[in-house]
Amino acid sequence: GAVVSQHPSRVICKSGTSVKIECRSLDFQATTMFWYRQFPKQSLMLMATSNEGSKATYEQGVEKDKFLINHASLTLSTLTVTSAHPEDSSFYICSARDLGENYGYTFGSGTRLTVV
Amino acid sequence: RKEVEQDPGPFNVPEGATVAFNCTYSNSASQSFFWYRQDCRKEPKLLMSVYSSGNEDGRFTAQLNRASQYISLLIRDSKLSDSATYLCVVNANNFNKFYFGSGTKLNVKP
Question: How far apart are the C-alpha atoms of B100 and A107, rounded to whole Å?
């Protein structure tokens, strides 16, 4: 089945620094990828839709200047958390769909971000 | 009102028990429905899609009730390894956008 690779799996950074998270579709091309955030004991919340070759679409309440998304190729989307603060500490997960398969969406393994 | 609502549980059941979860959705135009399983601190993984006619995969059965706008997941002969959080996922009007329920936690005890 489709595989989505996400890196890094864990990152600890200082307040004010930026962190980049990569999401790759390994064996399929993904014109669209999705970025979610999950706080403890809460559901996944869609942050933005990443579109290859064009600007990302952000959900209401998500600051596009803080969460920079780049989808420069059909297999790679990146999420950069800029000027991170402790409240940005969360579990970030990307997902994509292999249009050749009818198995819902495949998720990356997630990135646990801790801002200290 | 939330797009998707689930009973958070936890459902504590003994091995071998049958357990069922429901999930309600608010948008009557929703077209695609899925159940995902999420283990603690891991990414969600697709358990099964939910078809209009219902579908079964081994010990797992999923049903869709459009009239009452809910989907269900039935697990028979529960195993210890079934312990996880089960997420209900429903698409929005935009087929590419999906909403997740907050999950139902299942604990299967020996």
Answer: 13
